[in-house]
Design goal:
Blueprint lengths: L16 E4 L1 E2 L18 E2 L2 H14 L5 E5 L8 H14 L5 E5 L2 H5 L3 H10 L3 E7 L3 H6 L6 H14 L2 E8 L7 H15 L3 E6 L7 H7 L8 H14 L5 E5 L8 E5 L3 H14 L14
Parallel strand pairs: 1-4, 4-5, 5-6, 6-7, 7-8, 8-9
Antiparallel strand pairs: 2-3, 9-10
């Protein structure tokens, strides 16, 4: 396997074989992210991807789960992406799970027929960074996506039968827009109703634009209590649609996961306990660690 540059995958894909189809991220502008600052976006040569797939087959007698990296694999032209997917499924016939990263705008740039073909070829779920549902926060972090884009992209993925995990970041509104960030993100999730959600707490990455903004005093980090209150608002106001709640990221104050909406009350109870009894809740700044 010839991985190039830094390699990332969602924490819930820890047991998946990683196949690198792209280098970097097709947007790569978000102020909080440094995941792919070591490379420019590029689609790898098919021969190189196929060589990695074949090598992975030789050293892995049984593979049930594969995750395609790097960022925005869905940005690959459909006819090329289908060749990659078909090669994966033909090489690993025992496969039950094939996932990839996709921006909501990547869904929008394809037709429903394209997305259906991708789903039928074997993709089971796409991981999509929502980050926030607040229009001002989305602009401040240079996401280059609007609420309307996210809604449209989600609707297209649903129509095509592609499951979507939407990730977002508690604290991304900073100290000033904590309430608006929580309210607008929750309202957007209620409209989109993704198959899974993955909330995580903001971590300021060394070398990021966000770090520079923090150092200049342009972005004031939220308090630990604000982060807990954001999750409390989400748990109280997210509607009762079927969804898996991946709230166990390592930076989360109260890591927990389970089937939504069944877990609403026990999760709320845990958050309230942290707000009332966790000494860290009184700290004046969030305590998180870089990726």
């Amino acid at each position: 396997m010839q991985y190039q540059g830094k390699v990332y995958r969602p924490w819930m894909e820890a047991n998946s074989l990683l196949i690198q189809a792209t280098l970097g991220c097709s947007t790569n502008h978000c102020t909080f992210c440094t995941m792919f600052d070591d490379k420019r976006f590029k689609i790898r040569e098919l021969d190189d991807i196929f060589r990695d797939i074949e090598q992975a087959r030789r050293v892995n007698p049984w593979v049930e789960s594969i995750f395609l990296i790097d960022g925005n694999v869905m940005a690959i032209r459909t006819e090329i992406l289908l060749k990659i997917i078909n090669k994966v499924t033909a090489t690993f016939p025992e496969l039950t799970h094939l996932a990839l990263y996709s921006g909501f705008n990547d869904f929008r740039r394809k037709s429903i027929a394209d997305l259906k073909a991708i789903r039928e070829a074997g993709v089971t779920i796409a991981y999509s960074g929502l980050e926030s549902g607040d229009p001002q926060v989305l602009k401040l972090v240079d996401k280059r996506m609007t609420r309307e884009h996210a809604i449209e992209g989600m609707a297209m993925a649903k129509e095509a039968g592609i499951k979507v995990l939407a990730s977002f970041i508690f604290g991304l509104g900073g100290r000033e827009r904590s309430v608006e960030h929580a309210v607008n993100t929750t309202s957007l999730l209620n409209i989109m109703q993704p198959d899974a959600i993955a909330p995580m707490v903001l971590a300021v990455q060394p070398g990021s634009q966000l770090e520079q903004q923090v150092n200049r005093g342009e972005f004031i980090l939220p308090t630990q209590l604000q982060v807990l209150q954001e999750e409390k608002y989400l748990l109280e106001n997210l509607e009762d649609f079927d969804c898996y709640y991946w709230g166990d990221h390592g930076n989360n104050v109260s890591p927990m996961r389970g089937e939504w909406p069944a877990i609403r009350q026990p999760f709320l109870q845990r958050i309230n306990q942290h707000i009332e009894h966790n000494n860290a809740a009184n700290h004046n700044v969030i305590q998180t660690f870089a990726w």
